[in-house]
Amino acid sequence: MKIALTFNIRHAKPSLKNRQAIEEAEFDEPFTIRGISKAIKKLGHKVFLVEANKNAYLKFKKLKSSKQSLRDATRQAKIDLVFNIAEGISGQDREAQIPSMLEMLKIPYVGSKPLTQAICLNKAKTKEILLFHNIPTANFQLFKTGREKLKDNLKFPLIVKPNCEGSSKEIFQNSFVENEKDLRKKLKKIIRNLEQPALVEEFFGGREFTVSLIGNNPVEVLPPVELNFSVLPKDFIPMDSYEVKWILDNPKSKIKTIICPAKIDEKLWQRIKEICLKTKEVLEILDWCRIDLRLDKKGVPNVLEVNQIPGIIPDPKENSRFPLAARAAGYTFEEMLAKIIKVTCERYKIKRNIK
User: Fold this and answer.
1) Closest to 43 in 3D by CA, of 335, 308, 324
2) pLDDT digits (tens, 9 = 90+) for 205-235
3) Rounded to two decimals, what is the model's pTM?
4) Distance (Å, rounded) from C-alpha 165 to C-alpha 2?
5) What is the distance between the alpha carbons of residues 310 and 323, in angstroms, rounded to a whole number?
6) Are residues 325 and 255 in the same domain?
7) 193 and 165: one domain?
8) pLDDT at position 73 over 50
9) Does 16 share its domain with 64?
């Protein structure tokens, strides 16, 4: 097959002192992009690299055949499929940018439709849909100005997050607040710096898991990953903050914040799988995703985040959660990519020789 890989490049290593590094937290480093491209090539496919910048639409147009018919655009295209890991470059609906372009050009792609991409990046809208479908998630409130009255059902301690960001961007240790003064200070900073609303939700102190899924019908649920907060420094809040995800958890660190597969009893695991499968269904997530959950004080798994474009760093030392779960299930990195490509082709009814 001829596959285009779409991406956004991270130009700075993770750092608490470098604002650019924090801004690019969702993007992929060059070695990740090269690694994914190399793995797809090892499967026998030809790879075209398309950076998801302002020139992306024109690049996609050039990759299409000029001799195609309007009735059969996808079959005549020079590229058969787009493997999309792009986050988009601006706006609160940015993850929908590349899928929208591909929809216009009738080019098949890995992942969900534009509407789902936009909703899943919007934490408040995601949680509203989850609650409507009786899927457990923490009580929350969206702050647009930072001056709104705090709802009575929200009790300290609370977590303050940007509403439309991923990869723990702007979620630091000081995002955990225990009083009104610190809450207002954090709200003001997020709304001012990121020019978007801030989400406030109750903090759960239970175990935290992340679960990866591949497929549409059927869906394969990969072994659970647990975040091991017991190894954090004593002054750290037990949460997956930017400091934990990108600074403490790195190949050179002796601190291992990830356990895979998680040691979990069958009853809890079945409940987690049930919640994840229902979340994927109601949000209409296609092909693959990763869902973060945390247990409340009653031991009920609550959905924290929905990652419908999961990170897939090839290097096993990086503890990238989706590939880690895939390895625990017995897949190599290449086999994991092959399965994602296969389920996407099946969805589009693309008949190709997929390994």
Assistant:
1) 335
2) 999 999 999 999 999 999 999 999 999 999 9
3) 0.92
4) 31
5) 9
6) yes
7) yes
8) no
9) yes
Cβ–Cβ under 8 Å, residues 106 and 113: no
Which residues on adjacent β-strands are paired with residue 162? 198
Choose the final residue of a domain: 154, 170, 202.
202
Peptide bond preceding 218 in cis form (omega within 30 of 0): yes
pLDDT digits (tens, 9 = 90+) for 152-172: 999 999 999 999 998 788 899
pLDDT band at 78 (very low <50, low <70, confident <90, very high): confident
Report the C-alpha gap between 306 and 12 in whole angstroms: 25
222 lies in a domain?
yes
User: 298: which residues sit within 8 A by CB, 6+ positions away?
Assistant: none
Beta pairing partners, 290 = 212, 307
Q: Are 273 and 265 in contact (CB under 8 A)?
A: no
Residues in the chain: 355
- H-run or E-run covering 48: strand 46-51
- DSSP E strands, 92-240: 140-143, 158-162, 176-177, 198-202, 208-215, 219-221, 225-227
Q: Which of 4, 5, 16, 46 is nearest to 314 (CA)?
A: 5
Residue 221, classed as helix, strand or coil, is: strand
Concatenated DSSP letters of 255-313 = ---EESS----HHHHHHHHHHHHHHHHHTT--SEEEEEEEE-TTS-EEEEEEESS----
Within-domain flag for 105 = yes
Alpha helices in 45-195 (DSSP H): 56-62, 73-76, 97-105, 114-121, 123-132, 180-194
Residue with tokens 């750290």: 236
When mean pLDDT is compared across 34-43, 77-86, 134-143, 185-194, the lowest value belongs to 77-86
Task: Report the interhelical angle of 321-328 vs 333-348 (nearest 10°).
Answer: 100
Q: What is the CATH number of the domain that holds 343?
A: 3.30.470.20
Q: Which residues contact 261 (CB under 8 A, 6 or more apart)?
A: 223, 224, 225, 325, 328
Residue 200 near residue 143 (C-beta atoms within 8 A): yes
Secondary structure letter of residue 46 according to DSSP: E
Among the listed residues 186, 154, 184, 192, the one whose alpha carbon sits nearest the alpha carbon of residue 172: 186
The bridge status of strand 81-84 relative to strand 2-7 is parallel
Pair 67, 100 in one domain: yes
